Amino acid sequence: MTTLLIIDMQVGMTWPKAEVRNNHQAEDTIAKLLEDWRKRKAPVVHVRHISRTPNSPFWPGQPGVEFQPRFSPLTHEHVVEKNVPDAFINTGLERWLHARGESSIVLVGVSTNSSVENTARTAGTFVLAPGCASRHPSAINCS
Q1: What is the pTM of this model?
Q2: Which of 19, 27, 63, 90 is the most buried (most CB within 10 A)?
Q3: 3-state DSSP assignment of residue 142
Q4: Residue 134 pLDDT more than 70?
Q5: Which H or E element spans position 39?
Q6: Percent of the chain with pLDDT over 90
């Protein structure tokens, strides 16, 4: 079965409202995919960025670190916390997938040119472009 891997759909990714970004429909696409995966009882993994920088909106305990409400994991869905752009580095994600015999993933989320790209490179998988978005590089601050 194919696993849906949702990258960094956190509240802090909505601050400030990104006027200079691509694919403003990414969130709707991700929500539809998540609904489909849940209906089929297929595996879903939610990835959350936890910053090592105290003033970051992704610092533990800050409201920005929480998942956006429509992407909140269900109790049986796996959550991975990462400190670097790649969801496979120091997280146990590869072990979790391997233990379940999962060899196929669909990758969506933000930011395309950071966490999504780095995770896709490690996974050696394809990215579902309509389910990804990125801000102009000068507007990205995911420390």
Answers
A1: 0.85
A2: 27
A3: coil
A4: yes
A5: helix 26-39
A6: 51
